Each structure stands twice: as structure tokens, then as C-alpha cells.
Amino acid sequence: MTRTTCLPLVGIPTSYIKDDERGMHRTGGNYAEAIRGVSDCAPVLIPALGDDHCFDSLIERLDGLFLTGGAPNVEPHHYGGKPSRKGTLHDPKRDATAMPLIRKAIEGGIPVFAVCLGIQELNVALGGTLHQLVHELPGKNEHRMDRTLPPGERQKPRHPIFITPGGILHKLTGGKSEEMVNSLHAQAIDRPADCLMVEAVSDDDVIEAVSMPDAPGYVLGVQWHPEGRETLKTELSDALFRAFGDACRDYCAARGSTANSIRAA
Q1: Residue 230 pLDDT
Q2: What is the crossing angle of helices 92-107 and 117-125, to 10°?
Q3: Which of 139, 243, 247 is nearest to 201 (CA)?
Q4: Which residues have CB under 8 Å from 253's CB, separation 6+?
Q5: Using CA atoms, how far apart are residues 240 and 234, in angstroms rounded to an integer?
Q6: What pLDDT shows up at residue 147?
Q7: Distance separating alpha carbons of residues 17 and 87, to the nearest angstrom
Q8: Is residue 260 within 8 Å of residue 62, measured between CB atoms?
Q9: Which of 23, 33, 104, 204 is the most buried (most CB within 10 A)?
Q10: What number of other Cβ atoms are within 10 A of residue 107's Cβ?
Q11: Residue 126 — φ and ψ, nearest 5°?
Q12: Do 48 and 91 form a contact (C-beta atoms < 8 A)?
């Protein structure tokens, strides 16, 4: 891999988790490893502090924003949805951290890449709505993680997606109209935000990818998980993380600043 003189800083909002009454801010290791190893950027974890953040200070130091998957569901009051079913896991601290960062990043032209929960946060932050339990809708398939499988097999491809001609995915796949992806989610996009373009749908018409054509910078969200160690070996996953890294380097170079970057060894 060709190393840049300076690595763009990519912010990764974390989830807030209580463990034995201790608050923990964390994310899956595969996300940071993919940003460092494939995107060739410097990952920086952002704690889920919500309104206690100074978002402007954060944004002015970032060259990219990566929104990961996670166990919680976006709280439905953010998109006018019905109250969640009893027992649904939520993370209000992450909601209050990720969504302001999304809006500020897009406004500033900072590249945004969103995965699973991340694409849902992206859609809600921009005015869209969600299905809370997509597998219970008529005609929809089971999209949740198959927990009967060994952990190493849960991210294997499960269904096709059909790619919109002329979009980012169409370009990244070399003009393919179809790809196979994994599926580990219960929520999914219901109504896309007006500013978003649908980049791909599943075989049961669940929205699998979106972009924002009129954004000042790169914006892409995918519903599947491209970050797993085995998944990253596929051409599509590799292309997704490399394209995001290229966008972050372009952003950093365009503003002519190395002050917010980490020097590569």
C-alpha cells in the first residue's frame, strides 16, 4: 500500500455502554482497522458525549466521518416514529453525538461513510424515516443476524442487491448491476431523506445504499457490513474503504492543511 506523507484524521463516533455501572465508549475493532488498513487514514474514536461536545471544534479537526454499525436502534422520536417495542435497545448519547456531526460534516464538505446503523443515522439526520422491524413487514425477508451460525460465518453474503445505474456504487463496482452482501439488521430506511439518492435495493426492495448527489463532499451509506476481516477480502468492500480514504485525502489536500493529520511512519 502506498503511504501518504500525512494520514487524514477520520472520526468514528462510539456507542455508550454501561458495564457493571461503568460507562464505556466503544466500537468494534474491525471498523478502526479497516479505516487504518484499507482507507489508509488515521482513525480517531469520538466518545458519545452528546450535547457536552463542542461539535465545531471536532469538525474543524476531521478529514472524514465514519459511522459504524451497532446494537442500538435510533430513538424513534428523532423521525416521528411510533414508540419502540418494549426491550428495544437505544443509545441516546450516540444519537445526540452522531447526528449533529453528520449534519456539520456534510455542511462542511467532509467525506462521510456510513455502515448499517450508520446509514440509518445518516437518513434520520437529514430528515428521513425508518422501519423499526423490517422483517415484520409484508413481503420482506429476514434481515437480522443469524445467531445460530458461528460468529465467523455471520457476515457471509446472504442476498443480492441491485445497483442504481450512474451512482457511486455503480462506479465502484465497475458498472455491475448486482452484488451479494451480508445482512445483520432489524431497522432499515423507510422514507429516504429528500436529499438522498437510493444507490441499491435488496431483492425484497429494502434500501441497501444511499448517497447525496448535491452534497459538497463525498457521502455514501450502506446497510450491510463491509468491515469484517473476511468481508474486506471482497472487491466491493475493498473498493468502498479505498474510495472513502481517497475522498478524505482529497478533502485534506484541498484545504491545504496538515495540522490535523497524523504523519505516517
Answers
A1: 80
A2: 60
A3: 139
A4: none
A5: 10
A6: 78
A7: 16
A8: yes
A9: 104
A10: 12
A11: -100, 5
A12: yes
Average pLDDT, the chain: 91
Question: HEC states along the chain?
Answer: CCCCCEECEEEEECEEEEECCEEEEECCHHHHHHHHHCCCCEEEEECCCHHHCCHHHHHCCCCEEEECCCCCECCHHHCCCCCCCCCCCECHHHHHHHHHHHHHHHHCCCCEEEECHHHHHHHHHCCCCEECCHHHCCCCCCCCCCCCCCHHHCCCCCEEEEECCCCHHHHHCCCCCEEEECCCCCCEECCCCCCCEEEEEECCCCEEEEECCCCCCCEEEECCCCCCCCHHHCHHHHHHHHHHHHHHHHHHHHCCCCCCCEECC
180-192 pLDDT tens trace? 999 888 899 999 9
Strands 42-46 and 112-115, how do they pair?
A: unpaired
Q: What's the CA gap between 245 and 111, in Å, rounded?
A: 9
Burial of 239 (0-12, 13-18, 19+ CB in 10 A): middle
Residue partners of 13: CB distance under 8 A and separation at least 6: 27, 46, 48, 65, 67, 68, 94, 97, 98, 101
The answer to whether the beta carbons of residues 241 and 225 sit under 8 Å apart is: no
**Which grid coordinates are listed for 9?**
484524521
Which residues are designated catalytic? Answer: 116, 225, 227
Banded pLDDT at 262 (limits 50, 70, 90): low
Grid cell 453528520 is found at: 102
Task: Express each pLDDT in 146-179 by its tens digit.
Answer: 877 777 778 888 899 999 999 999 999 999 999 9
Q: Domain boundaries in the chain?
A: 6-263
Is CATH 3.40.50.880 what the domain over 6-263 is classified as, yes or no?
yes
